[in-house]
Write a sequence for this structure.
């Protein structure tokens, strides 16, 4: 079954097998933590690795944004990137298309591609990218830094990336049920996936930040809850969901809160700082809303109205690809 390795298997097989211990490693592998933090002099080097194999139409653009977003969500400026290209056949046109997307997206985000690897792998049936992004900061912000009493801020809203994927990869499937103008607006979501602009605002106030990706807003919030050891209480009506997201997700019978969520940024911050943060986000043209609050609890989890989540959900787009 396609999807992330379970938290139980990560604990059993991954997190305790991390090679040599070094004092310079401030944050290593842990559930909910998407980046590593390494102390180098008076700076912290932030490192993130991500794969991408689906979303064929915009795989290069998506890959750059997914990898750099996690670095930005840790309070750093994404600066360098390596890319591994695994291609199903010797097809120069496909390689040309993907590298052009990588180049354009990297220039847009001021990121330098500094290395990687490329190879043809005939057993694959679609391109696979492995991306590692690096950045530096003086203040690392972890997923697990949330504090009781913090309010939860969500930028842009639910299903930003998922909406763009549906509009492109599943264009034919939705075209009979959704107007062409709606599909076009949905596809434009792939151009608004970076969270770098809002991260530069929220990192001044945030105790924790997280980039919801696979599993959407639900998994992103749950990962923050577990990493922080808190209960997150969220009002679903406060979560921004665009009309094109509602229509496109409705046409494919998926929940906007449970599809790929790149493009949104979740942050927890002291309640007294929220008004200033929201004002600054508005000045940057970034939609945002306060969707809930962090509370102490015996068992960490996510509460969205009457629904309780303690285990990750499987991203609903996987069923469509399968």
């Amino acid at each position: 079954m396609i999807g992330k390795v379970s938290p139980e298997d990560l604990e059993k097989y991954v997190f305790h097998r991390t090679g040599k211990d070094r004092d310079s490693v401030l944050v290593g592998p842990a559930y909910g933590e998407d980046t590593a933090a390494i102390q180098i002099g008076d700076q912290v080097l932030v490192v993130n690795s991500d794969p991408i194999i689906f979303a064929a139409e915009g795989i290069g653009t998506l890959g750059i944004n997914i990898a750099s977003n996690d670095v930005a969500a840790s309070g750093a400026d994404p600066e360098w990137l390596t890319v591994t290209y695994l291609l199903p056949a010797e097809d120069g046109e496909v390689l040309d298309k993907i590298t052009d997307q990588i180049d354009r997206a990297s220039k847009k985000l001021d990121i330098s591609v500094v290395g990687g690897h490329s190879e043809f792998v005939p057993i694959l049936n679609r391109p696979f990218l492995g991306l590692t992004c690096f950045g530096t900061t003086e203040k690392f912000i972890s997923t697990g830094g949330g504090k009781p009493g913090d309010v939860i801020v969500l930028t842009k809203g639910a299903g930003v990336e998922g909406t763009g994927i549906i509009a492109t990869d599943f264009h034919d499937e939705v075209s009979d049920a959704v107007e062409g103008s709606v599909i076009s607006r949905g596809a434009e979501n792939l151009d608004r996936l970076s969270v770098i602009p809002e991260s530069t605002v929220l990192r001044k106030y945030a105790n924790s930040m997280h980039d919801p990706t696979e599993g959407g807003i639900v998994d992103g919030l749950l990962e923050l809850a577990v990493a922080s050891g808190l209960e997150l209480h969220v009002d679903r009506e406060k979560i921004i969901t665009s009309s094109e997201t509602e229509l496109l997700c409705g046409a494919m019978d998926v929940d906007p809160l449970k599809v790929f969520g790149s493009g949104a940024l979740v942050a927890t911050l002291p309640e007294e700082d929220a008004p200033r943060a929201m004002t600054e986000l508005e000045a940057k043209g970034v939609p945002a809303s306060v969707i809930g609050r962090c509370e102490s609890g015996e068992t960490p989890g996510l509460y969205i109205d009457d629904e309780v989540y303690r285990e990750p959900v499987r991203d609903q787009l996987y069923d469509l690809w399968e």
Observations:
- The chain has a mean pLDDT of 93.
- The domain at 143-321 is CATH 3.90.650.10 (Phosphoribosyl-aminoimidazole Synthetase; Chain A, domain 2).
- Residues 92-108 form the longest helix (17 residues).
